[in-house]
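To illustrate this point, what follows is a protein record of this kind.

___
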Amino acid sequence: MTRLLGRLGGWCARHGWIVLVTWVIAAAALMGGSLAFPSPTNSDASIPGTDAQRAHDLMKDGFGSGYAGGGTVQLLLYSADGPLIEDARKQAVERAMDRLRTMPHVTKVETPFRAGGISSNLQIGLITVRMEGNDSDKIAQTTQELSKAAEPAREAGLEVVPADSSTPADKEIKTGPSEIIGIVCALLVLVFAFGTLVAATVPIFAALISVASGLGIIGLLGWVVDMPKQAGIMATMIGLGVGIDYALFLLSRHRRLLAEGVPVVESVRRTVASSGGAVVFAGGTVIIALSALLLAGFPLLATLGWVTGISVVAAVLTSVTLVPALLGLLGHRINSLKVPLLRSAGGTHAAGSGWAGLGAWVARRPWRVLIGSTIVLGALAAPALALQLGPLDEGYGTQGSEPRRAYELMATGFGPGFNGPLIVVAELPAKVADTDDPLVKDLTREVEDVDGVKFVSDPKLNTSGRSVLIQAIPEYAPSDERSAQVVRDVRAISLPGVDVHVGGKVAGLTDAGDRMNERTPLVIGVVVLLSALLLLLAFRAPVVAIKAAVMNLVSLGAAFGALAMVFSIGLGSGLVGMDPPVNSSFVQTIFFSVPIESYVPLMLFAVLFGLSMDYEVFLLTAVRQSYLKHGDNARAVAEGLGSTGRVITSAALIMVAVFVAFIAYPDAMVKTFGVGLAVAIAVDATIIRGFLVPATMVLLGRLNWWCPRWLDRILPNLSVEGHEEDEPAEVERREPVTAGV
């Protein structure tokens, strides 16, 4: 790998214009193609094999409009000045319904002036619009068009708010301000890290090219595979961070070699041969972690995993080709446009004298550092025991937003359970003629008798007479854990020959949570095992591979602890933009707890494990290089930390800036990702890589690089740390000594 990457880096440095123009054209063509021919999105959140999916499939079979895939849109009406049944207001509502009936794909408009359609105080009403033949992936756009059609009601002084009938997968997260903020913060960090504007812009440019290329590929792939709406935001979020980081590591190495007097092309070649290998292996760990989501049994999550992996592949490719080309073209001009009052970090000593001192300090007192770091990390991870998982309903949306307002009106007028109705679909043992059949009546009565069911609609038979549909309204809000128990109790109904299934948003999220709990151990085991195996191939050191996996799990504990503190305990939820309910007390405002979607921890685990392994690979590479030169383990740890500490810290600051910027998004799911990723990266790059890892490596001594002779013989020699031609000859003679004991 060292020779291959070295030749690639040297060729790119010598043919910089060819590589640069090729990448720019490719990125422009891919991005332009995806914008010119936007592919359809499919945010299908189905989970094959679950009871909710079976209910959903049965709903499409002969139950008519609103159940066959067209969907249902609900409009909430609110009259602040009096009852809706007052003549002028009632006439305005009827005019609005007449306009709704003329809208495309509308098959039925149910009046609010019916049983169950108007609140007890007669001030809140519900118009139900059933549709057929419309694009279910554009339900949000369709809802807004129907809301506009209800303008006659607004002209009469009524408030008309569309209810949110989408699932979390339907929500389109638009990119824009957060990415810009993240890039600006990254540029500032790079300017302070390098002290020159030219050097600072190289990682930014390379990352933008890689992100554009990745997004272009993802957009075009949407024509051949189902692509969720969240694909772009996840790819941008991760691709931007790793793209800047990988280019940063290469650039730092190159500038140190230039400061030592190495010619430009030779410096680029050595940089790609050594640090390029670390980039390839670091990217490989991220891709492995994301690909493991294929085992989660959740198609949407699996797609997000491999789609995000595309952005990581693009970042690795630009790092080992485009960055060397830029370095070759710029030559010594890489240090141009120095920023006043900032010291350039191009020299070896400037690159990490403070971190080298910290490494030496840790090496002198490893036990104290180990114990202290463990206590701090344990305290950070302790709140994770209070992590509250559950569905997230619109009651936690932004205060004043339409979904939040509709949720509050629905809960006030009809009860919180109306925001998450259960769709009960039962398969009957034989055809029945009508809903007066005794078996249908028994089923309806059984559903009514379930604890926590507030209201049951009249049963509806499908055209074949073999299935019956009943809508059940629970007493609890969708986010209430008791709603999930109601789902399970309804499914437990036992009648001879009747198979009862429950669908709807609450049932789907309940099944998603159960599936995640079932598959999480498998995903975690595969990620840890494959990542450790990759490190074993890279460094031929079993102890280092196992220790790296354990350290990454420690940083995950801190991330989940932060999530629990902010969202589950609620201390700080207001600071990240989560709005408590109206008329909350002072204590409720400070400790406003928010449930975390069940799939978020698994997605966070995959992303964080891969990103944390990046820093582990770069630190271990530097320590290994130093150890091969002189064989002194404690000195190698100090030198490795000294040569990478500043770079890793800068890379972590960039990642943290990018992830913190995403906390500004109004979507609660994105906020949880932003908080978890930012905290984990910050802890990983400081406490873990700065103190815990060096301390353990000093204590392990030669065991760090021990490898059984039988294993040493069968492992391929990938040499991720690389060897430079000017290294002393005894390096090659040391290798057999460190490979086996």
